[in-house]
Specification:
Number of strands: 12
Distance between the termini: 19 Å
Organism: Shinella lacus
Strand order of the largest sheet: 4-3-5-6-7
Keywords: Phosphoprotein, Transcription, Transcription regulation
Shape: globular
Pfam family, one: Response_reg
Protein name: Response regulator
Strand content: 15-25%
InterPro entries: Bact_response_regulator, CheY-like_superfamily, Sig_transdc_resp-reg_receiver
Order of helices and strands: EEEHEHEHEHEHEHEHEHEHEH
Radius of gyration: 20 Å
Number of helices: 10
Amino acid sequence: MAFIGISGMQYSGASLSHHRILVAEDSNVFTSMISKRLKELFDLNVEICRSFEELELAYDKSSDKITLAISNINLPGAENGEALNYLVDLSIPTIVFTGTFQQTTRDQLLSKEIVDYILKDNIFAVDMLAESVCRFLTNHQHHVLIVDDSATARALLTTRLKRYNFRVSVAENGRSALELLKANPDIALMITDYNMPDIDGFELTRRIRGTVGSHQLRIIGVSSSTDRLLSARFLKAGGNDFIMRPFIDEEFYCRVNQNLDTLTQIRTAQRRLSA
């Protein structure tokens, strides 16, 4: 199975048909489009729930784990968002498919720690949804290392990444990061703070780049400093990207995806050259 998403994501791997996916949506048009597209791309059969009652029945009728839910904000019988609250309370990872978007709506959705939200207001909405589904179902293949001396910062980034289904390791300083990288060669992305007491982000990146190239490990630097030149210094040290704190969830996830997509493309090209 081969898939190339709108944002450049590439997936060519095993069938995703073993996952149980619920779609809580009352529009026949959208349920038909979603079902057809996910079946066509990933051989996924979805369970359609057109009301809150059907959603509850779908959960109760089977003990099989629900891998992911795709839900409208409002459903018949749950006109005030009860369906989404129900899924969140059950700890079911959920992508919200909505026709409206305002700042308050966005903030409320992200406060529930949903996986993602997709707007219905464009012709490629279903393809964007398909990409979001594919990312969630395959992100566990990516191992990400967070390096930060702040326990709070490590916890926040870990929560963000685990919400998207990544495997995550953490290091509280540069020396621990080097040890973890040596012990876990499958780490594909490192997100490192700049200001750390033992080895700062620049020096850590320089040491890593002495033996590990960008075709093996992507590095994103982060900092809350107001010095705009930090990004230039970090990139010159061998980093691939840099984000200033505070950053919003959408920006953070986009940067992570872009770097992992680039790594996937490089590895695909390398396999073709060696074939």
